[in-house]
Amino acid sequence: MKAFARATMGLGLVVGMTAGASAQSWDMPTPYPDGNFHTINISQFADDVREATDGTLDITVHSAGSLIRHPEIKRSIRSGIAPIGEVLVSLHANEAPIYGLDSVPFLATSYDDARALYEAQRPALEEALAEEGLTLLFSVPWPPQGIYAKMEITSIDDMEGLRFRTYNPGTGRIAALSGATPVQVEVADLPTAFATGRVEATITSPATGVDSQFWDFLEYYHDTQAWIPRNMVIVNSAAFEALDDATREAVLDAAATAEERGWASSEEVTVSATAELAENGINVITPSDALREGFQEIGAQIATEWAEEAGESGASVLETYESLR
């Protein structure tokens, strides 16, 4: 049945690509629940496209991995199973270094720096996507990342042996350098993983903590503000180019609006979600100097490794970033 469904979706994409200005329906897989600010923003994007095209392009958002699981979304768009979707950029850092840049710890910890990093990164990101037949529509940041745990962590030494949830190559490297035990877990599975003891700590945003009601199974949030990762909305380039000029322009206009709206929402959610964690009994802690220094050392090593792997093109992106800060 899964094979048949994928074949049917692929056929639908081909038909849509050849339909010109006729009405089209696009299925859009996304990883996060309906109440998440990323999903809310994307749903508004879909509404804006539908309104601007008088229904010529109808995008149906399938949230929370209900259509395609997060790790498979980018591949499904590339292969034509789905025409459009949302992914965490750094989830694909193993494919090309540029995908991991926004998740290098302590490289960009403020929204101003995150904006500058995105501006510096975007041309190389678009180039990498283009090589896979993909087009970047927009990218929106998560709130700054902090450490959730069942116990207070006062120094990097406390990470030794801790069952630490990882979700991309960057968090896997943090686990390795801190001596933690990496456990690969998707967002939707975190409540069960914490409740069963499979996971004892994770680095993620206050928004994710609220979405998954972390207060039901842990007690501490260390507000390290380690980095500001981003999601990206991407489209199959062939499907996008098959749209008529007016429809493509409507999609690009809606994407530009969604990007600005999403950045503003992210900053608002940082404040509101952190407050909601505290209101529900989680101890929101300013990290100790020892913990911050330990993570800064790890961040410096990861940044060095990234620059070595990325080579001259990576060095150019970092130089541009420094000039924009």
Describe this structure in words.
The protein is α/β, with parallel strands linked by helices. It folds into 2 domains: 151 residues, 3-Layer(aba) Sandwich (D-Maltodextrin-Binding Protein, domain 2); 131 residues, Bacterial extracellular solute-binding protein, family 7 (D-Maltodextrin-Binding Protein, domain 2), CATH 3.40.190. It contains 10 helices and 11 strands. The strands form 3 sheets. Strands 7-6-8-5-9-11 form a 6-stranded mixed beta sheet, with helices on both faces. Helix 2 links the parallel strand 1 and strand 2. Helix 2 runs antiparallel to helix 9. The protein is globular and about 60 Å long. The N terminus is likely disordered.
Question: How are the SSEs placed, and which strands pair?
Answer:
Blueprint: H1 2-17, E1 24-29, H2 37-52, E2 57-62, H3 70-79, E3 84-88, H4 111-130, E4 134-141, E5 146-149, E6 163-166, H5 169-178, E7 181-184, H6 190-195, E8 201-204, H7 206-211, E9 220-222, E10 230-236, H8 237-241, H9 245-279, E11 283-285, H10 289-324
Parallel strand pairs: 1-2, 6-7, 6-8, 9-11
Antiparallel strand pairs: 3-10, 4-10, 5-8, 5-9
Helix pairs in contact: 2-9, 4-10
